[in-house]
Design a protein that fits this description.
The protein has 382 residues and is mostly helical. Helices cover 76% and strands 0% of the residues. Helix 12 runs antiparallel to helix 14.
Amino acid sequence: MDILLGILLAVSSPVFYIIGLIVFIRWVARGGRSSGSVGNHPLYSSSAAAKLRELASTQSPDVAGSLNKLAAEIDETPPVHGIVAPANHGGASATRHGSTAPAPAPSWTSMNVSDLTKSLDNINIILYLGAFLIVVSAGIFVGYNFSTLSGVFKTVFLGLFAALFYGIGLVLFLRSKKLRPAGVTFTGIGLVLLPLVGLAAYNFTALHDSGPLTWFATSVVTVIIYLITLSFTRQTYVAYLMAFTTLSTFESSVSLFNLPIYWFGWAMATISILLLTLTRTQVYWEEARSALSLSANIFVPISLLLSFFAVSPNGMSQLGVTVGLAGVFYAAMASFNVATKAGEAYWVAALASLPLALGLGLWDSASRTQVAIVMLVVAALY
C-alpha cells in the first residue's frame, strides 16, 4: 500500500510541472506573445513595428530614431483589416470650429508588455510549484519505502533526480532570458545534489568497500560538470562550488594513496595557491576571480589548523611545511595588492611565516641551538 501511494504521488505531482512546460512551449511558439493580450488580435498585430524596432537596434542613432518613430506611428494606426473604423460624429466639424480635437488612437504596447510579464510570472510560478511538488513527492516516496528499496535503486533515483533538475535548469537558462531565474534555481539544485549521488553510492551500494576511489571519482566528475556549467552560465555561486570541489579532489587523492593525515593540510594549502594563480588569469570574470580568491583565503587558515592538530602524532616538521606554503600564499597576495593596507598585512604575514616555517621544519631534526642560529641568520637577512 505504501509503495502504491508513493507511485501515485510520484506520477501525479509532476502534472503542474508539465503544465508549466506546455505553457512555456506555447509561449515560445507564439513568438513571446501572451495568448490573451489585445496585441495578438489580427486587427492589432504589431509584428511590423517589432521588426522595425529590432532593425533600429542595429543602426546608427539617426537611422534608429527614424525607424523607432515609424514603429510608433504603426502602433498608433487604427485597425483597417476589412472593418470600417467607427465614424467620428462631428469630430472633423468640431475641429474646424475650434473645438477640441479627437483623442489619438490608443497604443496597445503597454498592454502587450503587461500581459507578457504576467504570463512569464505565471510560467515561473508554475515551474517553481512543479519543482517543489516533485521534491516533496520524491521525499515521501523514498521515506515511506526506504527500507524496501535497494541501494542501487536509491542511488540511481537520486542520480536521475539531479540530472533532471540540472538539465532542465540549464536549458531554461540558455534558451530564455525571461525564465533565467527558474533556470538558475533548477541548475543549482542539480549541482548541489550531484555530490550527494556519490555519497549515496558509497552508503547504499557495493562501492562502500572502495571509499577513497568513490570519493575521488565523484570529485573529478563533479568538478568537470562545475567547470562546464561555469563556462555556460557565468554564475558566481558556481565558482564557489567549483573551489570547494577542487579542494575535495585534492583531498580525495590524498585519501586514495593512503597518505598520512597531515597531507590533507598540505593539499589544502597547495590548492589555495593554485586557486590564487587562477585569479591572475583572464579565464574568468571579476566576480568569479573574487570568489576563487576568497575561497583560497579561507582554505589557508584551515590547512594551518589541520597541521597544528596533527603535531602530536606527527611532529613539528609537517607543520613547518604547511606554514611555509602559507608564507608563499601570503607573499603572492602581497604582490597582488601592492600599495594597499591589505598588501602590507599580507607582507607581514609572509615575512613572519617563512622563518617560522624554517624553524619548525628543523625542530625535529636539529638541536635547539642550531634552530636558534638559523632563525638569527634569517632575521639578519630580513
